[in-house]
Design a protein that fits this description.
The protein is built from eleven helices and twelve strands. It has two domains: 141 residues, no CATH class; 253 residues, Metallo-dependent phosphatases (Purple Acid Phosphatase, chain A, domain 2), CATH 3.60.21.10. The protein is α/β, with parallel strands linked by helices and 401 residues long. Helices cover 44% and strands 16% of the residues. Strand 7, helix 8 and strand 8 form a beta-alpha-beta unit.
Length: 401
Amino acid sequence: MSATETVQSAPARRSLRTLRFGATIIAILALLFGVPWWTLVVAGARWPVAVVSVGTIGFVGALVALPVLMYLGHGSRHQDWAARTGDTILGVIWVLFVWALLGNVLRLALVMANVSDPVRSRTVAAAVAVVSVGLMLWGYAEAMRVPRIKRLDVTIPRLGAGLDGVRVVLLTDTHYGPIDRARWSARVVAAVNDLDADIVCHTGDIADGAVSDRREQAAPLGDVRARLARAYVTGNHEYFGEADGWLDHMRELGWESLHNRHIVVERNGARLVVAGVDDATAASSGRPGHRADHGAALAGVDSDLPVLLLAHQPKQIDAAAERRVDLQISGHTHGGQIWPFHFLVRLDQPTVHGLSRHGDRTQLYTSRGTGFWGPPLRIFAPSEITLLTVRGSQTHRFHHQ
């Protein structure tokens, strides 16, 4: 192929990729809206014409509005009203889609039981509607509540006796955003302060938007109390906005912004390294000086000291295990947030929630997150404020005698 032909083929390839992407989005939207529309409105229910008309208009209107609202809300314009509306539509249609699929399993059972239409289809439609509405109301309450406290003991054999029982509180994925949650933020901080923490960590996705837009919601973080340290690292959502701005703002609030660096905390002669790395997406963000650099974060660390690493995504655990980190704490997954999305999350991450071991030394704790992103729903994936009580080997042996 000549150079001229190569140059001419490049736009054609880009056009083809654009067409494929557009076709994929259209197919996904058609399924998301089409399955619940067919199950609730059409099928064999034989609803009155007025019901079918109103239902169809509602689904089509939401289908057309969703991409427009998501562009206005999450694109360059950052219009919060559009983000709130679009996110809500997305959450509602996801729940309806999932339970419409399951409702059609019920349809098969009714077919086998010789239940005919329109009773069969109306029964399925009613079941899907009742379950979906119930779950959405419950999911909204779960998303907006102050998270429950998740308590867990973690053993780090190399932890010195002076730090045995050190209390580490993990916040992550607060996602201050289009829904103003300043009062929620204050209640979260009050709950954290009740835990009498030694170390409080925030592992990123602090907000969606610039500091100037979310300052009031983040302000209560300045009131967090910790005896030894308050530490923060960036998540992937900081790189949609202004990562440096949030690193600077957290410093202003009195936190240690662990931008590929570490600090050492000490109690009663025992020391613990608290290190942090940028999010896994930092390198591709185009921001100079941003990438997950474990080497820089652990430079100069005494190899005899135990290491607690803050890293936003669980999949950053491989690099942590290579460097013999004792415990990595992460968020990012939201526990799936809206069931059964956790199955998709698991395709990208080694864990979705909980404590896991990676190699002979390294452990990983993945939080379901403190807040939520997008749809104000949490269904079968409750939020959490995590209290990790870190024990040394002597305490571990004593407890198991």
